[in-house]
Write a structure and sequence with these properties.
Length: 73
């Protein structure tokens, strides 16, 4: 599994926006499809809510990637 850190400047980022921001999907529509198909985990649990608030310290898994979200400040 490839691990990457993603820094955000805000308090949180929505799950679908994170996947696009991190470059795991080209479009928000594809991110939505992945999430609704149950192919994305947040902190080890499958998450089907594309608007889930992801905060620094959370981990997101999609495919062969594991993203760790951290604060940019």
């Amino acid at each position: 599994m490839k691990q990457e850190s993603v820094a955000i400047r805000t308090e949180f980022i929505k799950l679908d926006a994170l996947l696009k921001y991190a470059g795991l999907t080209d479009t928000g529509g594809f991110a939505k499809e992945l999430i609704q198909a149950g192919q994305v985990k947040v902190n080890g649990e499958v998450c089907t809510m594309r608007g889930k608030k992801i905060r620094p310290g959370d981990t997101v898994e999609a495919g062969e990637y594991r993203l760790t979200v951290k604060s940019c400040t």
